[in-house]
Amino acid sequence: MKLLIDIIGWSGSFMVVAAYGLNSYQKITSNSLIFLLLNFIGGILLIFYTYYSEAFASTFLNIVWVLIAIPAIIKTLRTQKN
Question: Comparing C-alpha atoms, which of 72, 68, 67, 48 is closest to residue 58?
Fold first, then answer.
């Protein structure tokens, strides 16, 4: 079970860092769906990992991270429909 949780944590970390790196090098924009989804999914995975690891301050941070991503994803999807 610990290996699975570690894989979840590393995957979440990779996604968040990938989003930041791709945005920093202007490969994706901060309002692109891929950027927002990488942050959202990465944050969800990190919530599981940090909660399991009892790193509750990081769990809180990732919950906020995900809550910020949700309305941004909705806004982006609505914009793309129009």
Answer: 48
Model pTM greater than 0.90?
Answer: yes
Dihedral angle computed from the Cα positions of residues 49, 52, 57 and 58, in that order, rounded to the nearest 10 degrees: 0
State pLDDT tens for residues 20-31: 999 999 999 999
Label each residue of 24-74 as H, E or C. Answer: HCCCCCCCCHHHHHHHHHHHHHHHHHHHHCCCHHHHHHHHHHHHHHHHHHH
Q: Which residues neighbour 67 within 8 Å (Cβ) at sequence distance 6 or greater?
A: none
